[in-house]
Amino acid sequence: MDGTWNGLTIPIGLEGASEADALDAYSRVVTSVAEMVLPSVVALTTRRRGNRGQWRDGAGSGVVISGDGLMLTSAHVVEGSERGGAVFVDGWEAGFDVVGRDPLSDLAVLKLSGGEAPPAALGDASNLVVGQLVVAVGNPLGFAGSVTAGVVSAVGRSMAVGSGSASRLIDNVIQTDAALHPGNSGGALADSRGRVIGINTALVGPMVGQGLGLAVPIDPATQTIIAALIKDGRVRRAYLGVAGGSRPLPPRLIGELGSERGIEVVEVVEGSPAQAAGLRPGDIIVFAGGSNLTEARDLQSLMTGDRVGKDFALTVVRGGSVLELTARPHELSEG
């Protein structure tokens, strides 16, 4: 009896079958992914000016995503830098310029200065499952072209990020046990077919949880962010000015509104569009822009650039009554 995994036949439960057989199959997958992805992953070096005016060197990884030299990396890798250097695994060196960065997704797009580069194939992290094999490729601790493998430890995680006074959650972050170290940030997390399904972004240290790595997923939401960075060099987001969390609705209103939960407003920022719309702490927002809200991330996902300056309908429960309010979101400032 044989089993198949990722197109490979692995002997299972037969005499003569050994752990080495399974290991060989596993190794073939990892080496195949490494061969496909390594040529597209670069070691990045940057220089940034510190708070006291001194220059500081930085390092990280990047992934080529187009034949004309566009690259993806983590926004924090190129924070404070407009250009730097890139070294490929075969030793070829080139400079790069920062095309755009978005600290609130921890993604940045770079452009190689001259020369063609082999692009990696981008996948879709939307269908990842716990236990799936993933391969991390990057340049940890200055060791260029390093490959580690592991599994998806969890999906659907959220990671808080901030820039100046602005903050948000990155949704659907991939958690993996593939070994990551400083310098892996901006590198590739690939599936067993060699498709890049994440950009490694964070490492949980040994004092917190050794062996846990996080990656920003490549999915439709981040593809939109990447396209905006390529086109405009930045990502526009709308700002409402509320903080809150999920709360059940009063039983008598569940049938009337067709929803069991909403977002309870805990704080309304002074001078914000939410305050101008008449929102108050204690209100429960059930619908916004025609969409049902059950968690804070539902509202966050609606705060796209096309909402800026446009009327935004809100259905709110206040003191047992249902109110209809209208807000006009501002553009979110990262300062």
CATH architecture of the domain at 125-223: Beta Barrel
Describe the sheet with the most strands.
6 strands, antiparallel, barrel
Helix segment tally: 5
Summarize the amount of helix as a percent range. Answer: 10-25%
Short description:
Helix content is 15%, strand content 44%.
Please, could you describe this protein's structure?
This protein has 335 residues and is α+β, with helices and mostly antiparallel strands. Among the domains are: 125-223, Trypsin-like serine proteases (Thrombin, subunit H, Beta Barrel); 238-331, Pdz3 Domain. It is built from 5 helices and 22 strands. It has helices at 19-37, 220-232, 251-257, 273-277, 296-302, and strands at residues 2-5, 8-11, 41-49, 55-64, 70-73, 83-88, 93-102, 107-113, 133-138, 146-163, 166-176, 188-190, 196-204, 212-217, 238-239, 242-248, 261-268, 284-288, 291-292, 312-318, 321-327, 330-331. The strands form 5 sheets. A 6-stranded antiparallel barrel has the order 3-4-5-8-7-6. Strands 9-10-11-14-13-12 form a 6-stranded antiparallel barrel. Strands 16, 17, 18, 19, 20 and 21 form a 6-stranded antiparallel beta sheet that branches. A hairpin with a 2-residue loop joins strand 20 (312-318) and strand 21 (321-327). The radius of gyration is 23 Å and the shape is globular. It starts with a strand and ends with a strand. Mean pLDDT is 86; it is low at 8-16.
